[in-house]
Design brief:
Shape: globular
CATH class of the largest domain: Alpha Beta
Radius of gyration: 21 Å
Number of helices: 9
Strand content: 25-35%
Number of strands: 18
Oligomer: single chain
Largest sheet: 10 strands, mixed
């Protein structure tokens, strides 16, 4: 299971209050965590693969706020319509056909958060992305590029860029041969005549998914706005990953700006897709499965503490609104 590392100081800062350290260690299992280890400064906690919304400290804090009655009910995010587009190349249909994107405005990134973002990205690569085969994620400094954006098929020996943490411009094939990420993930695209690229309106290459980002868009502690791209072979997985990233990384940001993905072979899609799922929970069914005598009011109170919205329909029915980052919730049971 993924192990999430965080410091007490980092967590308490985002939580907005300080807990006794032992109290925190006792609470974490109540939000589905297995505490692997801890010391005076840091905690290492495991979370199940069906809860990728916990794979960054923002997701953990969001759950703790509910458990501690600091904030209950479904979180609300400021999502603003924008005119940014990401246009998909027809040639990618049989290579890596799907992409999702959004822009997160007004982030504050210190060294701890920079580390958190990188670890969050890699955890999602493993759990949702199946080690990047199904989904790959790019997180960029938005202020280094200019829209509109393009998801295009690049020519391996002609297109060139400076890969992340490198100094020299190389062709796409050279990056596959010389960069450690290129060597590790080349098998995912090397059989194709062209490779996927994310580029901006000035033809700056931002990334070669699922391999490596460009050094041009590297995140730093001066980064204020994020451009997110998620590419993959499965549209549902791509959408789920983008929604989770958008929700978590905007917890401490000003807003999320929508990006419209324009396809030549699929309906256009605007992201993020935060329209919640709505389902009914029945008191008698819940009581039978849990083995307790429950009431609609008690179920509502519990659901709100776990960051759902819930309202009473009748004495046996509670209507539940499920946020889109909770991809583990499939049905009533």
């Amino acid at each position: 299971m993924p192990v999430i590392n965080f410091t007490y100081d980092e967590l308490f800062k985002q939580l907005g209050c300080t807990l006794d350290k032992k109290e925190l260690i006792d609470i974490l299992p109540m939000i589905s965590s297995d505490v692997e280890s801890y010391d005076e400064t840091e905690v290492k906690a495991e979370f199940f693969p069906n809860r990728p919304d916990y794979y960054s400290i923002e997701g953990i804090v969001r759950a703790l706020k509910g458990y501690l009655d600091i904030e209950v009910g479904m979180p609300e995010y400021k999502v603003v319509e924008g005119d940014t587009t990401l246009t998909v190349d027809e040639e990618l249909k049989d290579i890596r056909p799907y992409v999702a994107s959004c822009i997160i405005k007004g982030v504050e990134i210190d060294d701890d958060e920079l580390k958190n973002i990188m670890e969050f990205q890699e955890h999602l690569h493993w759990v949702i992305g199946r080690d990047r085969k199904k989904v790959a994620i790019g997180i960029h400094d938005y202020d280094t590029v200019e829209g509109p954006f393009y998801y295009k098929a690049g020519t391996p020996d002609e297109d060139k860029f400076i890969a992340l943490d490198c100094n020299e411009e190389e062709s796409l094939n050279q990056i596959l041969e010389t960069h450690d990420k290129g060597e590790k993930y080349a098998k995912l695209i090397s059989d194709y005549d062209k490779y996927p690229l994310i580029v901006d309106s000035n033809d700056n290459i931002m990334s070669m998914p699922p391999i490596i980002n460009s050094d041009l868009t590297k995140l730093t502690t001066n980064t204020k706005n994020l451009f997110i791209d998620v590419t993959g072979t499965d549209l549902t997985a791509v959408t789920n990953a983008l929604n989770i990233i958008a929700a978590n990384l905007s917890e401490n940001a000003d807003s999320i700006e929508c990006v419209k993905v324009v396809y030549p072979y699929h309906d256009d899609v605007t992201y993020p897709q935060f329209e919640p799922k709505v389902l009914d929970v029945h008191v008698d069914t819940a009581s039978e499965y849990i083995g307790m005598d429950l009431t609609a009011d008690k179920i509502i109170q519990t659901l709100e503490k776990t960051r759902f919205n819930a309202q009473k329909v009748d004495d046996n029915t509670v209507r539940v609104t499920v946020p889109r980052y909770r991809i583990d919730i499939l049905h009533e049971v």
